[in-house]
Amino acid sequence: MAKSGDYEIPPQVIVLDATAQLKALMSIIRGKTTQRGDFIFYSDRVIRLLVEEALNHLPFVEKEVITPTGAKYDGLGFKGQICGVSIMRAGEAMEQGLRDCCRSVRIGKILIQRDEETAMPQLYYAKLPPDISKRFCLLLDPMLATGGSANKAIEVLLDHGVPEENILFVNLICAPEGIEKMLAVYPKIKIVTAEIDAGLDENKYIIPGLGDFGW
Ligand code: URA
């Protein structure tokens, strides 16, 4: 089984290849002194890589096309339609990366906040494509820390009829705690991430992380 540090990466987790390019991009966005403009530009680069990778994990069907030469090409086509759902607000930063790869893609939004009395994540707002149950769903959130909001968002998607196996959680940085919490409840989901970090600090920030993704 593949490992990130001491952490055994579960089979449902797809981690981008740790190329020198990806490491360089992550070093910029993680850097304490990185300016906002660079943070946005380079996190967009990583988001684009993540979306491209996530699309590789959707089902395809064989598709034959005739090229302008009149010859046959044995190709592939996407099986089914997709949509994006961003977990507000940080997840909204990932919407453009999805639009750049998928023309006219439908994108929904979910707002979850911690209830001040119960400390439990609570759904405040959801606007989802009406036919979401028939689509593969890319759930967008850049930081997976405790997994509380992400699990609540998945619950909302399931309540709207999306099959668990049709959900791909797309994210920049995961904490092992968040992965474990998500997969314990939703083992059929796939997680596509750029890097898995060591863990969480006492304030539930990912370490080493990048601080507040705050957009
Ligand atoms: N959200 C963030 O923006 N950063 C973290 O480290 C955890 C959650």
Chart the SSEs and their pairings.
Layout (H helix, E strand, L loop, with lengths): L2 E2 L2 E2 L4 E3 L4 H11 L5 H21 L3 E7 L5 E7 L2 E8 L6 H7 L4 E9 L6 E7 L7 E6 L2 E2 L3 H12 L7 E8 L1 H10 L4 E7 L2 E2 L5 E2 L8
The structure holds uracil.
Identify the CATH architecture.
Answer: 3-Layer(aba) Sandwich
How many DSSP helices? 5
Distance between the termini: 35 Å
How do the SSEs run, as a string of H and E?
Answer: EEEHHEEEHEEEEHEHEEE
Number of domains: 1
Specify the overall morphology.
Answer: globular
Beta-strand percentage range: 25-35%
The largest sheet is: 8 strands, mixed
Q: Enumerate the spans where pLDDT stays under 50 for 5 or more consecutive residues.
A: none
| C-alpha Rg (nearest Å) | 18 Å
Fraction of residues in helices?
Answer: 25-40%
Structural class: alpha/beta
Keywords:
Rossmann fold, GTP-binding, 28% helix, 215 residues, 5 helices, EC 2.4.2.9, binds uracil, alpha/beta, transferase
Task: Explain the overall architecture.
It is a single chain. This protein is of the alpha/beta class. It has a single domain, classed as 3-Layer(aba) Sandwich (Rossmann fold). Helices cover 28% and strands 33% of the residues. It is built from five helices and 14 strands. Strands 3, 6, 7, 8, 9, 10, 11 and 12 form an eight-stranded mixed β-sheet that branches. β10, α4 and β11 form a beta-alpha-beta unit. The longest helix has 21 residues. The chain is globular, with a radius of gyration of 18 Å. The structure holds uracil (URA). Uracil binds next to loops. The site of uracil has 7 residues, from loops. Pathway: Pyrimidine metabolism; UMP biosynthesis via salvage pathway; UMP from uracil: step 1/1. InterPro entries: PRTase-like (IPR029057), PRTase_dom (IPR000836). Keywords: Allosteric enzyme, Glycosyltransferase, GTP-binding, Nucleotide-binding, Transferase. Its EC number is 2.4.2.9.
